[in-house]
Target: Leucine rich repeat variant
Amino acid sequence: MIGSADEFVRLRTSDEPDEYRRAAMDEAPESVWLEVVQAYPEMRRWVAHNKTVPMSVLNLLAADQDEDVRIAVAQKGKLTADLFSQLSRDPSPTVRQRIASNAKTPTAVRERLASDADESVATEARTRLG
Model:
């Protein structure tokens, strides 16, 4: 278990594959994730990449100003229907494209994205719809 924001940063920036992997796979208390988000803004997308990060933190990150953070959230399979819907309306075409390509995206969201103003988003959604 990751016990502090500093530990997460150390693991994430380590050259050791086992430590780097821990940053992506190990659990941490919600308070640690929130501390990372607050104290280390450059690590927010890596928080989103963690396999165990709680939905409360993903909800926060889904509204992040940094497009790369929202892209990382959009790639998660465990999103709620509300988050799929929210991110499918993101101003960034890249975020919407990641939602269109996410294997867990609800069909109704993908159907709406099939007529997205951005052709790459619409094409991805149509491709995934079959």
Remarks:
- The chain is about 65% helix and 0% strand.
